[in-house]
Design a protein that fits this description.
Elements (H helix, E strand, L loop, with lengths): L1 H9 L10 H8 L3 H7 L14 H4 L4 H12 L4 H4 L4 E6 L11 H14 L3 E6 L16 H14 L4 E6 L4 H12 L3 E5 L6 E3 L2 E3 L3 H11 L5 H8 L14 H11 L15 H20 L3 H4 L2 H13 L5 H11 L7 H8 L16 H6 L2 H6 L18 H5 L24 E5 L2 E7 L10 E9 L2 H7 L12 E4 L20 H5 L6 E4 L11 E6 L16 E5 L4 E4 L3 H10 L10 H9 L26
Parallel strand pairs: 1-2, 1-3, 3-4, 9-10, 10-11, 11-12
Antiparallel strand pairs: 5-6, 7-8, 8-12, 9-13, 13-14
Helix pairs in contact: 2-13, 7-13, 8-9, 9-16, 12-15, 15-16, 15-17
Bound molecules: FE2/S2 (inorganic) cluster.
The site of FE2/S2 (inorganic) cluster has 10 residues, from loops.
Length: about 625
């Protein structure tokens, strides 16, 4: 029997569908011949047509230098000659703990590249640590995007594997890959393990805010708070809620940039290492067929991403990132696109912060493809993926194994309205709110403003009982936007005064030009555009002004007369520039507003005019 079993195990692909998304990845890894069949217009490159051949192949002085230096690194001619060079952009460093497993994963990817006849080269790029980078990792997203673009452009790479996970790494590397337009595939880092404390399942990020509020309310001891520190992030991997990291890797998958099923696999699952090796193998196929990101990430795939964002109850941050990514293509997205799909897409993922479960449960319940299989009519299923198959093929016959975690279409967590885009005289260019993560009565609310001019002012005064705030007040934070903070940090879940927490208040209407962590929650109006720092109407709000939030009507209105606002505007003084040199100056001179994606203006465009420079 053992011999028979071994033979069975060696047969691939297996004939019956598997419930395991990890196995689905292996089933759907299509051999080159099939890939060519699915992309009939493509021809396999000859070795001498590879980009790397121009560096390593010819009998000339420069190629001698390139080959001799590869040998200096210990490689033989047989290692690199005639093989696609696969760059592995590794965002590991010691301060990005979500990527602690990337030192091993990069070896797994290399294994796959070698197996498929490629030549892997690891290229470390800036790791954007959500936790440690100040004022915010978002300030450096465009920096990493530029680095990735130029690395892909300058080195003799035939394809690249993008190692992403922690929030901004996914959009940054995809933005860079789109601009350089070198064949690329994403290896999502995977969510961290489930963990519990005192018998209660924890959610990284989300529970930090919740327990901090409990501590503020005097219901949690210092000892318990310190003990929580040991449990809240219990393994490598990105945050295990449907925060920004899980959202962005899911969107990378539905846009066709990962192997099918890859984004849901937990970081420490053995299937994650197998997926990494398969990703390396597929990168070699992409190199031979020269399949570029611009061919995968088109209007259809962006719309699929927006639908998926709504169905997973994903992070508001994805709006800014998708706008920035689209800005690197010829796809024209608007905030209205998000609101349109929000009104027709049910929320099916019962995941925190909007729901109950975490990513490990999502994986066990069938993962992203099981969710997508519930809404095929909302997706453009003919969109292509890096496996050379359609999204329909990638989803396959994925099934839901736990309807508590991935809801059925006829029993959604929320029938629609995961995210809402609002406009009004307080946000002429738009702002966003996540209704699913707010207390429902607050979605239609009018109350007096309590204004804080910047974050230090907020920290200094929010708990001052003399302010006498009530649960009906609308807390307003100015100067927390793309330029005002700078970097549009995740300050948007503004703190509720301690005395109100102690009175049992857990949610209030809060408005800022900041972002909010994808793991956060509450009636927080975010990304108000234009921001207050550049003179947006948010800068004109004063204590006591009445503000009306009407989510159903998609309005955010400052109830102050136009005459009075004009008077206030005439007295408004633009702040002095914060930087006179360096990256800060570049950032200030070039960053767009949140409704445009906060990318650098000079990086807009599809990059097709900027072909990799010839080395001769
Ligand atoms: Fe890295 Fe949350 S801190 S994903």
């Amino acid at each position: 029997m053992a011999g028979e079993c071994e033979k069975m195990c060696l047969r691939e692909p297996r004939p019956t569908p598997s419930r395991d998304p990890v196995v689905r990845v292996s089933l759907l890894l299509i051999p080159l011949n099939s890939l060519l069949k699915r992309m009939p217009s493509r021809t396999r490159l000859a070795p001498e047509q590879l980009r790397s051949h121009r560096y390593l192949g010819p009998d000339d002085l420069r190629s001698f230098g390139h080959r001799s230096r590869q040998k200096q690194a210990g490689f033989s001619t047989e290692d690199f000659s005639g093989k696609p060079m696969i760059g592995i952009l590794n965002t590991w460093n010691d301060l990005i703990s979500c990527h602690a497993h990337f030192r091993q994963r990069v070896e797994d990817i290399k294994r796959g590249v070698w197996q498929a006849g490629g030549f892997p080269v690891e290229i470390p790029v800036m790791g954007l640590s959500e936790t440690f980078m100040k004022p915010t990792s978002m300030y450096y997203r465009n920096f990493l995007a530029m680095e990735a673009e130029e690395v892909l452009r300058t080195y003799p790479l035939d394809a690249a594997v993008l190692m992403v996970g922690c929030d901004k790494t996914t959009p940054a590397l995809l933005m860079g890959a789109l601009s350089a337009d070198v064949p690329s595939i994403v290896m999502p880092g995977g969510p961290m393990n489930r963990t519990s404390w005192h018998g209660e399942q924890l959610a990284s990020g989300t529970d930090v805010w919740r327990f901090w509020a409990e501590r503020g309310a005097g219901r949690m001891s210092c000892e318990a708070w310190c003990e929580l520190e040991d449990h809240i992030a219990a393994s490598p991997g990105h945050c295990m809620t449907m925060g920004t990291a899980s959202t962005m890797t899911a969107l990378a998958e539905v846009m066709g940039m990962t192997l099918a099923g890859a984004s849901s696999i937990p970081a420490t699952h053995s299937g994650h290492a197998r997926m990494a090796a398969m990703t390396g193998r597929q990168a070699v196929e992409l190199a031979w067929l020269n399949v570029k990101p611009s061919e995968i990430m088109n209007r259809a795939s962006f719309e699929n991403a927006i639908v998926t964002l709504m169905a997973i109850g994903g992070s508001t941050n994805a709006i800014v990132h998708l706008m920035a990514m689209a800005g690197r293509t010829n796809v024209e997205l608007t905030l209205e696109d998000f609101d349109r799909f929000s009104q027709t897409t049910p929320v099916l993922a019962n995941l925190r912060p909007a729901g109950k479960y975490v990513m490990g449960d999502f994986f066990d319940a069938g993962g992203l493809n099981a969710l997508l299989a519930e809404i095929p009519d909302l997706l453009q299923l003919e969109a292509m993926t890096v496996e050379g198959q359609t999204l329909k093929d990638a989803i396959g016959d994925a099934k839901i194994w736990n309807e508590e975690v991935i809801c059925r279409r006829n029993k959604p967590l929320c029938s629609m309205g995961s995210l809402a885009v609002l406009k009004g005289n307080l946000a002429p260019d738009g702002c966003v709110i996540k209704p699913a993560a707010a207390e429902a009565p607050l979605l239609q609310h009018t109350g007096p403003a309590a204004v804080f001019r910047d974050y230090p002012d907020l920290k200094a005064r929010i708990d001052d009982p003399a302010l006498a705030l009530t649960k009906d007040h609308v807390i307003v934070l100015q100067n927390a936007g793309p330029l005002g903070a700078p970097g549009i940090p995740e300050w948007g879940m503004l703190p509720i005064p301690k005395y109100l927490l102690q009175a049992g208040v857990r949610d209030m209407v809060r408005i800022s030009d900041a972002r909010m962590s994808g793991t956060s929650y509450g009636a927080c109006v975010l990304h108000v555009s234009p921001e207050s720092y550049v003179g947006g109407p948010l800068a004109l709000v004063q204590d006591g002004d009445m503000i009306c939030l009407d989510v159903a009507g998609r309005r955010l209105q400052l109830i102050v007369s136009d005459v009075e606002l004009a008077e206030r505007r005439s007295k408004w003084v633009a702040p002095d520039p914060k930087f006179s040199r360096g990256y800060g100056k570049l950032y200030f001179d070039e960053t767009t507003q949140a409704n445009e994606g906060c990318d650098f203006r000079f990086l807009h465009g599809d990059g097709s005019q900027d072909a990799p420079p010839s080395i001769y």
